[in-house]
């Protein structure tokens, strides 16, 4: 699912409400039919939210890698310390993931030496290492140089082909059209239109969607 | 000059004893001061305005006063108010109080510099509470404050010299008393300088190592 919309429309905020990094004022979030974030009527505390968040992998616009850990360290960090998985197994898995995203040779270096595209691919590996049920992407390519955007989108396309559940906030229209199966269009803090890509991009129903597409598509 | 040198060498144990006192005074100040500094930093960051203001004024006040004056206040001034400390307690307290103020500022600065993005990533990956602090926040605090704390250690060591004024037998006191007994001022103080240099060099080497490690791990 791709969330599109002009800047300031609330796309990132909506995404962050899904894993409760932002506290929603109202509404409910269901993961596999189970309402998350609340225990009955009471909002969950950070400690309990942590367990829920660990079921969702998040990839940030500015990568947000942990600089005091190596690339491999970043990927194994949460599975080992939050999910309490075996270190050897996690390292094995991490090496596979890093190979899959194409940064295996950088395994033992520290993040600050990497390019933006490499950092983001490490971030994707970090998210995958959690074996998440959902992957959340917050404008994953917005901070990248145009030439580098492609390498990250290629990894994301691979994940789509693998059948992963992904919610992607993005400005990459081509990616949304080719790889998405649902487009959610937001404007001024509200969802304005929801449609499959073929419909949304060729026959947008609402006027705001039409205006948006006119401005962003060539 | 040869005679002077031989006097110094004959009394090397006095210098070493003085150095020993300098070192343990500095080490005690570093350890206690940095721990108390965490508490001070917490007060400086307190959302309760009156706590934050009061601590801020105290900390700034201490940093604007020459250390020697604080030593005098505690050792000579307090007895007038009925509080009498022996010279060691007075000296060590002065060192700790004075440098806690600096440590408080250093740790507060390191805290404010911790990257929100990385904490957010921590939260998104299931971290919270003590684990978040230990795995994500503390390493950042350490690497950003360690060089400053290392430098502060050098200032602590230099400030121990002031304690000779209340007759604490640290290194400068040892050098001064050797020189006044045997009339060998230049050789005596030079020996002290060399010993201070050796310690400072060791601290700076350590700080440099940490800076290198911190640089590898920068954002």
CATH architecture of chain B: Orthogonal Bundle
Strand content of chain B: under 5%
Would you give the CATH topology of chain A? Rossmann fold
Give the overall silhouette of chain A.
globular
Number of discrete helical segments of chain B? 9
Mean pLDDT of chain B: 94
Which architecture of chain A would the CATH scheme give at its second level?
3-Layer(aba) Sandwich
What are the key terms here?
heterodimer; A: 218 residues; alpha/beta; Rossmann fold; six-stranded mixed sheet; 9 helices; 43% helix; B: 219 residues; mainly alpha; MetI-like fold; flat
Would you kindly provide a written description of the structure presented here, covering whatever features stand out?
The complex is a heterodimer of chains A (218) and B (219). With 218 residues, chain A is α/β, with parallel strands linked by helices. Chain A contains 9 helices and 10 strands. Chain A has helices at residues 11-18, 46-53, 71-81, 87-101, 116-128, 146-161, 173-179, 197-202, 207-216, and strands at residues 2-4, 29-31, 34-36, 38-39, 42-43, 56-59, 134-138, 166-169, 183-187, 190-195. In chain A, the strands form 3 sheets. Chain A has a 6-stranded mixed sheet, with helices on both faces. In chain A, strands 2-3 form a two-stranded antiparallel ribbon. A two-stranded antiparallel ribbon of chain A has the order 4-5. The longest helix of chain A has 16 residues, at 146-161. By secondary structure, chain B is mostly helical. Chain B has one domain (2-216): MetI-like (MetI-like fold). Chain B is flat, with a radius of gyration of 21 Å.
